[in-house]
Amino acid sequence: MAVSDPAYESASQLSRRRRLLILAICCMSLLIVSLDNTVLNVALPSMRREFGATVAGMQWTLDAYTLVLASLLMLAGSTADRIGRRKVFKTGLVLFTLGSVLCSLAPNLESLVAFRMVQAVGGSMLNPVAMSIITNTFTDPRERARAIGAWGGVVGISMAAGPLVGGLLTETVGWRSIFWINVPVGLAALLLTWRYVPESRAPKPRRPDPVGQLLVIALLGSITYAIIEAPSAGLGAVLPFAAIAVLALAGLLAYEPRRHEPLIDLRFFRSAPFSGATVIAISAFAALSGFLFLNTLYLQDVRELSALQAGLYMLPMAALTFVCAPLSGRLVGNRGPRLPLIVAGTSMAACGLLFAAFEAETSTPLLFTGYVLFGLGFGMVNAPITNTAVSGMPRSQAGVAAAIASTSRQTGATLGVAVIGSVLAAGTSAAAPAAGFVDASRPAWWIIMGCGLSVLVVGLATSGRWARRTARRTAERLESSKARVPAESSRTS
Question: Which terminus in the chain has less CB density within 10 A, N or C?
Answer without folding.
Answer: N
